[in-house]
Amino acid sequence: MDDYRKSMEEQIIESYKRDEEMMILVFAQWCVNNKLDPHALYLQAYPQQEGNAALSRALALTVPEEEAGDISDDTVLGVLSLYGNDDLAYVVTEAITRRKPRAGTGD
Fold first, then answer.
1. What global pTM score does this model have?
2. What is the predicted pLDDT for the residue at 50?
């Protein structure tokens, strides 16, 4: 039974890590889509995490804005909130507030 429990715990941890990396990818692509520097925003929220490896991996997977699907402000904020990234969600909210509205989107 201990082997089964340990295996389940490892699967849960791996699943959480994959989901967390997807959250970081959503954040990074949202930044690219909105012409924002994901490293700069991330460092505003977490100054002690300069050179974050997960963010670097996510940035390698982003595509140019023209090729990306739209990621709404609500989506990125919801994903950050889901993973308890309140500090980053706060910085993103400030960036949204400073951003000029995009033509025809109502954002």
1. 0.81
2. 79
